Q: What sequence folds into this?
């Protein structure tokens, strides 16, 4: 596969502010990561899976880019006195724990006191930092992306050796260890050693993702993982999870609050065993699971569950008193019927909601594909709402559907009636695999619908994403606007493919809404373009764990990554 580096136009030689250089360096590194996946020969499916897995991971707590530090270094004290070394030991240790591992280790050369400090400060290690030089490239270097990429790839060969050295040299504790750039298939002996050191040093945060080049990569993860009982956050990816038979019965993660399972080979027995050994787990995500998934949620601690891009037979919420968010995206089962509208296989997933009195956010439900059950009642088209078939606590609902598919639209009112207290409704408008949206919605399906409580009394905000100005979408928009008595805002997000005609479409939508008899005349229409491609995820993975923010609002995901992170 040939590689053509992207064109980066270098700025003029005049001095640039440090923040601009750092931003350009970060963009260059991100571009290099994307191109490196192509150089390594990954096919389209593997690139997509890799992209989704890595976008779901938390950032390391330290960064190579520190513009404030660079700015401070430009104004050293005039008297030349080293005031930093005079600070109390505890403060110096805290400073060192906020530096990349290589920079923190370099402070040992300053003096005898600093040599002892690094070994006593909590270690923060990210192998991604080890493969770079640690400095931002200057303005005259930013056009040599090809050379930077080759140097980065050469550095990857030594990453495993440097990780081994760092883990062995530091006595602990390990505050955070992120290993995401090392191909573990070639370093299986190091994998076993690292797990032993991590367990012995009391690692608190571990992100361990095998840099796999093939989807069928099968690298066993040592059962030594279960000795890391000090873990509070754990993400593992592109590995085979230890079999239950190899794990001590008394093993557990008594302090683990956040867990991410990313493209794992992991059976149902192992998944159930793991969840049962996490008594205080609050945040849980599964991304690109490599085996058939049956997820049973029965926990007194879980607050947020995310399941994305996986083959899921069933998601069952049995008893989850603290569960606030149940989120899934691109989840389908293993069998079903042929969808005549799109010519694709409609694979069903059962979604069962039992006792979840604090469930506030649910989505994205797909009518027909997701077979919804509330309590012991299966929800079907025309199901009459009763107290037993309603989840009163849900305030934000996401639904993904083809608005030109009469079967899906016929199910929509029944879904909405199950959640009478919804205040914010997200609609993800879908096409077929071929992009066809020529199907027409039977207007009687909406016009003859009996009153829907949430639509008439509670829904204040409706957000329609991937809007293409199809007739079926306009009909649905009119249906909502004419019945939403307390509707305050309708947000239409035009699909990325409509960006060239956004102004014209915005004007057409305004004219259309002006001709509609609004149930609430104060309702406002907001139209903007999608800032990211159509294949972007439905939410920010890490942002969903922040209970104070709207998890489905992805408008800032790719503009300000920090705004999407959990506090």
A:
């Amino acid at each position: 596969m040939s590689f053509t580096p992207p064109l980066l136009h270098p700025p003029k030689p005049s001095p640039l502010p440090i923040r601009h250089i750092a931003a350009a360096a970060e963009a260059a590194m991100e571009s290099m990561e994307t191109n490196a996946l192509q150089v390594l020969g990954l096919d389209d499916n593997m690139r997509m899976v890799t992209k989704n897995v890595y976008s779901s991971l938390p950032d390391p707590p330290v960064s190579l880019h520190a513009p404030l530090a660079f700015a401070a270094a430009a104004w050293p004290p005039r008297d030349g006195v080293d005031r930093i070394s005079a600070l109390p030991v505890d403060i110096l240790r805290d400073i060192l724990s906020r530096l990349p591992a290589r920079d923190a280790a370099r402070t040992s050369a300053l003096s005898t006191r600093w040599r002892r400090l690094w070994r006593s400060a909590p270690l923060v290690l990210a192998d991604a930092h080890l493969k770079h030089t640690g400095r931002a490239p200057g303005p005259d270097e930013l056009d040599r992306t090809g050379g930077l990429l080759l140097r980065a790839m050469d550095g990857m060969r030594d990453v495993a050796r440097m990780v081994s050295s760092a883990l062995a040299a530091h006595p602990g504790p390990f505050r955070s260890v992120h290993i995401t750039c090392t191909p573990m298939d070639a370093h299986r002996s190091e994998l076993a050693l690292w797990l032993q050191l991590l367990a012995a040093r009391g690692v608190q945060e571990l992100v361990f993702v095998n840099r796999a080049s093939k989807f069928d990569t099968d690298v066993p993860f040592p059962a030594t993982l279960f000795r890391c009982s000090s873990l509070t956050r754990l993400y593992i990816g592109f590995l085979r999870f230890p079999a239950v038979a190899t794990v001590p019965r008394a093993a557990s993660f008594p302090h683990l609050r956040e867990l991410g399972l990313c493209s794992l080979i992991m059976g149902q027995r192992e998944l159930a065993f793991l969840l049962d050994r996490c008594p205080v787990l609050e945040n849980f995500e599964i991304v690109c699971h490599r085996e058939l998934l049956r997820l049973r949620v029965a926990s007194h601690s879980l607050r947020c569950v995310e399941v994305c891009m996986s083959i899921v037979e069933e998601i069952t919420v049995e008893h989850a008193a603290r569960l606030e968010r149940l989120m899934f995206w691109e989840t389908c089962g293993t069998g079903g019927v042929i969808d005549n509208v799109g010519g694709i296989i409609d694979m069903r997933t059962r979604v069962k909601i039992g006792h979840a009195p604090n469930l506030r956010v649910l989505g994205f439900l797909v009518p027909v594909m997701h077979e919804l059950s509330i309590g012991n009642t299966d929800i079907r088209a025309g199901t009459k709402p009763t107290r037993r078939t309603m989840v009163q606590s849900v305030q934000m609902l996401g639904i993904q559907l083809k608005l030109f598919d009469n079967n899906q639209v016929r199910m929509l009112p029944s879904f909405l009636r199950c959640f009478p207290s919804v205040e914010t409704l997200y609609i993800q408008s879908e096409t077929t695999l071929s992009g066809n949206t020529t199907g027409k919605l039977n207007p009687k399906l909406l016009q003859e619908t009996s009153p829907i409580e949430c639509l008439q009394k509670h829904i204040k905000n409706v957000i329609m994403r991937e809007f293409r100005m199809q007739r079926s979408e306009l009909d649905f928009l009119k249906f909502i606007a004419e019945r939403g008595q307390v509707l305050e805002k309708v947000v239409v997000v035009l699909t990325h493919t409509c960006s060239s005609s956004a102004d014209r479409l915005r004007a057409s939508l305004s004219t259309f809404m002006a001709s509609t008899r609004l149930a609430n005349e104060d309702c406002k229409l907001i139209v903007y373009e999608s800032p990211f491609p159509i294949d972007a995820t439905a939410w920010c993975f890490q942002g969903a764990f922040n209970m104070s923010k709207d998890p489905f609002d992805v408008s800032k995901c790719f503009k300000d990554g920090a705004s999407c992170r959990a506090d």
